[in-house]
Design a protein that fits this description.
- The protein is α/β, with parallel strands linked by helices and 343 residues long.
- The protein has a single domain, classed as Metal-dependent hydrolases (TIM Barrel).
- It is 53% helix and 13% strand.
- It contains 17 helices and eight strands.
- An eight-stranded parallel beta sheet has the order 1-2-3-4-5-6-7-8.
- Helix 1 packs antiparallel against helix 17, helix 8 packs parallel to helix 9 and helix 16 packs antiparallel against helix 17.
- The chain starts with a helix and ends with a helix.
Length: 343
């Protein structure tokens, strides 16, 4: 047996995966047809060609085209059910999933309450039928005007305890520093809602500094460009701020040339709090399981490090301490059993 089979069987937790970016290719084509939302692809093979990204701006164009195929609450329930079914098949026990609700509100007038109700229907179904849980990070995209970010922060605050666990910031970092959205994040932080902005992906250390100092980030989405600033690395190590690292995404979006040049091994060597995630799995031809296998191979991680990365994600989640303790005990017990079978 092998580490690969161990990774496939082991329990996992995922913190950085976008609901809109998780749509299965066959489902996307069906939604496109049903909702009369044209795509420049009519087959799964053509979608795979379309998903060959030139850069981050090209990726955003495709991401928003995918989002325009979602036109009703039942579409959101469908993709959430399918997503959670896929997570269950990978033994991903808990997922914290990013939703960008303002896009659906602006595009087709889907009220946030209706979006949340539809997703919660799928969330409750998955917990009862599949034994997996999820919560939502309500994300605001940087290319939008600042004003509506306050409304979206209020949406997220209102959903806290009803499927929502955090407030996020995504979209293009260039020209849109964290400081621009200070007011919305101050509102969320004041209401006790954890903040998890993307930072340090397409912009360097200054974006991460802004997320820490201005947005008071509880976790950082990506954060990989932190390695360009030794002082920032020291700060992140001292704080043990969780970093939601998405290796394949970083390569597909040309942040790094290959997994072999990805800074993940150096981040681990520096004692940073790293978690492994899939970001937009069908778009990048990956899954969380694939991410663990690829990083274990390329970075020559041993089973102890793989286990620690899973437990890091659990520790960094926004589950209650009681649930974390129960899941941690379950995971550690399962790790021990699986080692005997697979290693």
């Amino acid at each position: 047996m092998s580490l690969h089979s161990y990774i496939r069987a082991m329990p996992k937790v995922e913190l950085h995966v976008h609901l809109e970016g998780s749509v299965r290719p066959t489902t996307l084509l069906a939604l496109s047809h049903r909702n009369k939302a044209p795509l420049p692809a009519r087959t799964v093979a053509e979608l795979e060609q379309w998903y060959k990204f030139r850069d981050f701006r090209h990726f955003l164009g495709i991401y928003f085209a995918v989002s325009r195929c979602i036109r009703a609450p039942e579409d959101l329930e469908l993709i959430t059910r399918e997503f959670l079914s896929g997570q269950a098949r990978q033994n991903i026990l808990h997922s914290e999933v990013t939703l960008t609700p303002y896009t659906h509100y602006v595009n087709y007038g889907i009220e946030f309450g209706d979006q949340l109700q539809a997703i919660n229907e799928a969330r409750r179904w998955a917990e009862e039928e599949l034994g997996v849980t999820m919560s939502l990070t309500i994300d605001y995209s940087r290319e939008q005007e600042v004003g509506p970010s306050l409304m979206v922060a209020d949406w997220a605050i209102g959903g806290l305890g009803n499927g929502v666990s955090a407030f996020g910031l995504g979209g293009p970092e260039v020209g849109n520093p964290p400081e621009k959205f200070r007011a919305a994040f101050e509102r969320a932080n004041s209401a006790g809602l954890p903040c998890v902005p993307h930072a340090g992906e397409t912009v360097g250390p200054e974006s991460v500094w802004g997320a820490l100092r201005t947005l008071h980030a509880a976790r950082i989405g990506h954060g990989v460009r932190c390695m360009e600033d030794a002082e920032l690395v020291s700060e992140l190590r001292a704080r043990q701020t969780p970093l939601e690292v998405c290796p394949t995404s970083n390569v597909c979006l040309k942040i790094f040339d290959s997994l072999h040049t990805h800074p993940l091994p150096a981040m681990l060597d520096e004692g940073l709090f790293v978690t492994i995630n899939s970001d937009d799995p069908p778009m990048f031809g990956t899954t969380l399981t694939d991410e663990y296998i690829a990083t274990a191979d390329v970075c020559t991680l041993d089973v102890e490090v793989v286990d620690r990365l899973v437990l890091n994600a659990l520790q960094a989640s926004f589950l209650t301490e009681e649930k974390k303790t129960r899941l941690r005990n379950d995971c550690v017990g399962t790790f021990s059993t699986l080692r005997k079978r697979h290693l």
